[in-house]
Amino acid sequence: MKNTLLLLLLILLVPFNVMAEEFDYEDSVEVVESEGESQESSCQAGITYTTVNDKMVPTHGLQSLSIDGVDFNFNYETCDYNIDYNGDLDKLDFKYTTFSDSDVVEISDSTLKEGKNNIVVSCKNEGLLLKYNITVNKNSKKDAFNNNIMIIILSAIGVVVIGIISFIIIKKRNKKQ
């Protein structure tokens, strides 16, 4: 019986250890990439290619795009990005390279507020326009912390309830003997 209680207690306490290890106060980002489903999507429709060493290479557009402080995987053929951001940045700083020196890049307002932020990165060249849509969902660290505190409190209540039930069962068994 004691082994069963010990095993039950260990099973209930393991989630506390996992939660403590997984929750950190550093900036955390989750990136979900979704590729356009048709050729009419804003960036894919405007990509033009040339052949170099038997490989198709874009003639213009963004070759690379990165955001300081954000783990972000860019692909020039992907038009739409959704990013969940749990950090302190109030404005995103973009770094990019283009396929052509004549490409002109414009980035819409990259100031972040709590909630959904839509940022458009446009690349123009000789009448061609490529648009990359980046949606950044900025979450409050306070909300994430409050959610974890609630999970801990509810888990603790569960442990106490299970402990009381186990104690009552043990007492009843001891009275029968």
Q: Strands of the biggest beta sheet: in what spatial order? A: 1-5-9-8-7
Q: Multimeric state of these chains?
A: single chain
Order of helices and strands: HEEEEEEEEEH
The description of the largest β-sheet is: 5 strands, mixed
**What share of the residues does DSSP label as strand, in percent?**
25-35%
Helix content: 25-40%
What's the SSE blueprint?
Layout: H1 2-22, E1 28-34, E2 49-52, E3 55-58, E4 62-67, E5 80-86, E6 94-98, E7 104-107, E8 115-125, E9 128-138, H2 141-176
Helix pairs in contact: 1-2
Describe what you observe in this structure.
With 177 residues, the protein is of the alpha+beta class. The protein has one domain. 32% of the residues lie in helices and 33% in strands. It is built from two helices and nine strands. The strands form three sheets. Strands 1-5-9-8-7 form a five-stranded mixed β-sheet, with no helix packed on it. Strand 8 and strand 9 form a beta hairpin. Helix 1 packs antiparallel against helix 2. The longest helix is centred in the C-terminal third of the chain and has 36 residues. The protein is elongated, with a radius of gyration of 26 Å. About 15% of the residues have low confidence.
